[in-house]
Write a structure and sequence with these properties.
5-stranded antiparallel sheet, about 40% helix, globular
Length: about 650
Amino acid sequence: MLMRYVGFEISNYKGIIKTNVQIREGLTPFIGVNESGKSTVLEAIASFDKANDSLYEGHFINNELIKCKFNRRKSPKIIAEIYLDKSETEHFIKKLFKYLFEEYSQLARMFRTERNRDDGTIGYSLINDSELAEIQESLLELIDNLTVKEKSYNFFIQREFGPEGGKYTLLDKNDIIDETFCINKGKRLNLQGGNQIIEILSENGQKYYLDKTVLSKDEFVIDYILDLLPPVIYIDDFKDIIPDRITDSNNEQYIRLKNIACNLIAMEITEDEFDDIDRLESADRLTLLNQISRVINDNIGEVWNKNHVFKSPSKDDLFHIEVQLKYENGAFEFLIVDLDKADKTQNTYRFSQRSKGFKWYFNYLFKVIFNNKIANCNDFIDDKQKRIILLDEPGVYLHAAFQRELLCLLKDDSKNRNSNIIYTTHLENLLSPDIININDINIISKSSKGVLVTPLNDSSETKLFGSFDPIWNAIRLKSFPTDISDKAVVIVEGLTDMIILKLLQEKEILNPDIIILPANGAPFNDTLVSLCLGLSKKVLLLFDNDGEGKKASKKINNSYGPIAQTLSDILSNPKITVLETLYNQEEINLIKEPLKQNLITLYYENKQYSNRKKLLRFIAKNKSFILLAEKINEYFNL
């Protein structure tokens, strides 16, 4: 059965008073300035999954550590919204209640109506096991014939933390039980003790009620649901280090090795036998280690080799790696072997001797592929569940070129492993707009309302000063072509100027062959100007008609000749200061304030997005923009 997380509501968790996180398909970057709360949001999401309770010595669920500093008296709460389609809902309800009515009858607290002999009033009494047995067949028939009216269904589970840990409750809003049994106001009753009961069966003039309050908090019911949920996997670059010697039976890596041994290899071995590996015959122990190594190489080694084969600097030999699991003196150890084209060993390293990039990627695959929660559900390597992977600052150890490669790998992994990946970052190479949709980015900010998670296209530019720098840098990196030789090049002051000209190119009003490069305001970097002059066919530097722009234009022309113009120069209109003054009201109403930020998010939307298509139509009719394009074409004789 495939349940999927839709979103989380986080309350009173560390610096968070209240915020919401929507789970998007594929990659979702979280950006923000230092200390804005990015890691806190990931930790809060991870804390919902009880499989993470022991992670980092229980840090995520330690009530004293996670209490909100603004509301110390209120308990931290995480509410997960969970999606099921119609067939999944029916399957879930039928299986759950069959368990309750067949095997766990003591949990299925049922009441029946009872008339008071003295005054004739109707009361409700708890039925005993024998009475439950009498109606069991009717209950099971009722469950077998259940149908769900809605095409899909969302329900909510809350985890509330306190001194005793985190307790789960199935919440009433959009109640899955009420919807399934078609419970209306007349079938819902509140007993004197506060418990709510609902009518689910009427037989021989007798009505039978289910204690929904007990059911919504019952550990069996909650655990049944939680075990069906996809795993939430948290990976921290700075905390997740696979040791050279894996010894502790409570160690996360040890547990993963045990799960591989007991679930994925041909050799039959129990958990007790694995824990007492020293008692195995040496040949059996070697077989066990070799079979575990083979599984790890099939699932991790091959992925690494596919993406990271490198050439030796001394000879033209291709190297690839093989992982070998060893056991000696009461400890497991990973050895990483470099093999040449003929599969001959060239070098052997302990895990700690490999690069930080290798160690990060190995740990990432080890945690994602060999997930302990999936192992315990007898479905170890999972290709269907929409698991959530939380990455805190991935790639900080990697070379800039490999950071971009990492983003491609994460994008592929989100598709191939059916994962929704949320990651925090300051790195522009992990925000490349040709790999991710920048409108999937969320801004993490801190204010008097605590830590907030805000989708990029809902964010306030002034309130989030500094947060956007990685995005702008990513777009600038993407915008600079690898080859400008013998090309016409226009350098503009910023990203929004570039976008306006690119939109004019999309409508073929501005010649599409012109290269448009964004600078970082006036004055332009002399290196950029010199590079473009040296490599391109012809260059135009286009400045705003403000004080800085006029000064920079004059300086450029004095140094390099007449290659710079202000907007008022090229349009022969002294009233024009910046490109935004060319917008008509129709365009302003569509883009909305803040214009610069919203134009960027609109431009990088899917090209089929209706507002983006509408903006293209508006700009194609704007006479000022058309005139600008014509003047630029004339400058290059195009």
